[in-house]
């Protein structure tokens, strides 16, 4: 078993050694400036469907969370009420099967394997992308069905600026966002803040009560605050160091279920802190990156009616070293080592949990046929608390037939470690953990094409992909008939998914008009097996059809944006389903200069068609509601 890790480490050592030797021979070569190459994770997404959300949409969703942003972008999101837990589900996977990565660091909780998107304000991040399809060799545990990539990069090239915005909307929603950046081409500092307070007492139609009366959501008050600091320093011509840290505080009442006759009194407070350091050194023949991170999260849940008052906390320490080296003029070799420590404590655990993970990975990129064909082969191995997990691999292909048409394909294996909740849950009369769980493991494959055309003032991109995936040893909590029917996790289920994904982006510039249109359609056929009475049924909360469309029009200082989404019927268990629904949102804005700054007034209407819908069964979502936002921006012309 150790042979597998040894081979991977040998490649890394050989790579660095040969690079140093050639540097001694060619020490007259000088690099004019540092090339901040893409991380191993970004560089090796070749052949996959990676959708980057444009900067205009990011700006329009300032003051909101990633839940609302991704939901409007054609992504399947589960939301447990207004401002409640929000998770993403891609290609038939669960909430713990889509990795959320910030500046190369996974944010998935080691306790439950998930990330609540509702606790991440949009304006804290400069870039948001969604990769459809998992890749365990790149992102490690949890990257089974997809990856959300969050970044704070390019700080040195951004102009100095000061921005602020105020928001007020229905449900007594009040929000403030502010940011500022100062610096030059060698050093810079940016600060971002987002704060939202809301009663969230929106109207809804209660279909769980006789006559479907119109009611108001209760006990859904929320206060969310987020702060991010981002710094970057360039040393000389070949070294760049960046340091980013953010903190979020979310005080949220857990809203009353639609079927409940008594108002909820439950409250949940979440505090999350993360800091990441990235050091990049670029030599003439190889590049080197050192990544370190510390993540801390705690959660306190209090429900006086149920007599629950629990505190759960975890810490993660992440260290990674990575190197990239060109070979033979048409190849690039990337290799790296990683070491992660997971620590967690909970009143529901048998003991404080500690997990050590040592990983080694290597990847080779080949650019052939005059760079028309790009091939990627990757492999990763991990040692978890002294035990090797199954070896995982990935491969990707992109072939540029002509400048506007590109074929792409990928195949990858993936895995997900049991969460600390799965392993360490204390033995009670109702539930018990299982320290003998195996990691989930699976594979996925994609095949598709990209078409890009630029004709005069028209830009068009069409992306299409067929995908198929399978996940084995799926960890499921079920009553154990051999253990007094106590709930216990076991490796029971098996899931299969296949479908197609289609994306279209159109931009037309007919000055003074600019028109943009985005359209997405996803068809997913997913079933779960070896799961008792649910065997052969569609996976829960996975719609077979999902459509998203956005149309934006800009005329001089005026802007108009309409977003529409359609979600088909979804199973919530083996017997019940939630009906299909359509959602439409409208945003109208007008900007004008005042005293050297730019002011913009925006008015928005959410759920403009007054649709009655639920994202998660028994959790009400609001009918038509609106908001108004005033933003101001002062920007310099240069960072020099």
Describe this structure in words.
With 640 residues, the chain is mainly β. Helices cover 8% and strands 56% of the residues. The protein is built from six helices and 34 strands. The protein has helices at 2-25, 40-43, 55-60, 66-71, 136-139, 420-424, and strands spanning 49-52, 77-79, 86-88, 98-102, 105-106, 127-132, 146-151, 161-169, 173-183, 187-198, 203-205, 214-216, 222-235, 239-253, 267-282, 287-303, 308-327, 331-346, 353-368, 373-384, 387-388, 392-402, 405-416, 440-455, 458-480, 486-510, 513-529, 545-555, 558-567, 570-571, 577-578, 581-594, 597-606, 625-635. The strands form five sheets. It has a 22-stranded antiparallel beta barrel. Strands 1-6-7-4-5 form a five-stranded mixed β-sheet, with no helix packed on it. Strands 2-3 form a two-stranded antiparallel sheet. A hairpin with a 3-residue loop joins strand 9 and strand 10. The radius of gyration is 25 Å and the shape is globular. 40% of the residues are buried. The model is unreliable at 1-38 (pLDDT under 50).
